[in-house]
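User: Modeling request: complex.
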Amino acid sequence: MSAGATDSQVGSQVGVKLVSHFATVEQQKRAAVLGMWAWLLTELLLFAGLFLTALILRLTHPEAVQAAARHLKFWIGATNTVVLIGSSLTMSGAIQLSRLGWQRGMVRFMLATAALGTLFLALKGYEYYADYQEHMMPFLSDRPYALKDSPPSRLFVNLYYVATSLHGLHLMTGITILLAMTWQASRPGFLKQHQNRIEIFGLYWHFIDLIWILAFPILYVLNR
Amino acid sequence: MFGTGDERRILWRHMREPVLTACALLVMLGINVALGATLPFPHVWIVELLVASAMVVTILLFSMEVRHEPPLVKLFAGIGFFWVGILFAMTLVDYLSRP
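Assistant: Request completed. Predicted assembly structure:
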């Protein structure tokens, strides 16, 4: 159903198909939300370990970390944060329109979310390229490291690549799932049977945003 | 896409909160970026971390709609950050108390 349904018409157009191992649709929806949260908590602990390591490096080697952080592209990081906040807004838009049963608008919001996620990755890729040009990749054995006189800075720079590439991997996975789901969601009858898939995926997308909201200050801002 | 006045009104009613949430996040990001770019006082990192924490809470409560979830989901969401709090507190107590 495209834009045109009023709130009172939504009931028959939006729903969730009950699967056999649940007693009610409400139970099925709550189990899906709880399951996603349980998984997101494991992800939170994974990234928390990396962020904690960054803070410890800042405490134990302040000069080396500051010297390395001066090479990070602060304004690209800030721009990417704006891009992800925008993608969270479009994802929320897709969720809201899925609740209304406005399928066409929902699909457009989902495509916009995927486009913003791709823009984030493109900017991140450019940032990595600029780092490569500045010899800020200490893990490349055939390319001299710019801060070779500061061994502890290698720890921070390597951690920066691990944390941001892991986040990028999550974002790439999210974009892939989102595009597959957009294709499914564009077919007639999707919202009648699978509306909660949009909601569950939305939790994942907002969580990717949340992780970057923490990564940007911890890696880029605090160490200036 | 949303031709009639009625449709636009319905859309705005449902999109008002996400739009306001995004605006709040952008304002807080602006504060952090301004602080990071200018470094106006010595312990500015405390304010930067507080602003980042406020952004995380905003995403949890409004974007991820935790405030509308049943108590069990609220417990899950809260307990994850509680674990992270234990991890950070116990580790940093060690490092910060070393001579």
